[in-house]
Specification:
two-stranded antiparallel ribbon; 136 residues
Length: 136
């Protein structure tokens, strides 16, 4: 009987404790990301995410975002991009400055907005913990 009570108490603690663990709120991140995108990304990639032909690659329906692992995209946002890339069949070779001065949450928010706008759709959130790990 004593083992049953102890086991039940432990189970209740685990269940009760898990109520305080919250998952990452993707919709709120996307909302914050839109504001950050306007400030830091829109000048090159445009409001509609279509970029500028021959200069700045599109983010809208971008096959590049689908082909690259999330960690690679995080690194590009943090450290910048140089050299030729191909996005949706078109070549781009304009350097992009890194945004490593942004917080982990800001970088995650921009990417969540990008991954969920202009025909892009991702149910999986980029988290500040992923960004922090990519910084190292």
């Amino acid at each position: 009987m004593r083992k049953f009570i102890t086991g039940s108490a432990l189970l209740l603690c685990m269940i009760g404790g898990s109520a305080f663990v919250q998952s990452y709120d993707l919709p709120k991140s996307v909302t914050r990301g839109k504001e950050l995108y306007v400030t830091y990304c829109q000048n090159c990639h445009m409001e509609d995410g279509k970029g500028v032909a021959g200069a700045f690659p599109p983010l809208a329906k971008a096959d590049f975002l689908k082909k690259q692992p999330v960690n690679s995209i995080i690194t590009i946002l943090l450290k910048g991009q140089s050299g030729e890339i191909t996005v949706n069949g078109a070549k781009y070779n304009t350097p992009m400055m890194g945004l490593d001065y942004l917080t982990d949450e800001q970088v995650a928010d921009i990417l969540n907005y990008t991954y969920n706008s202009w025909g892009n759709k991702s149910a999986k959130a980029v988290t500040p913990a992923q960004v922090k790990k990519a910084r190292q």
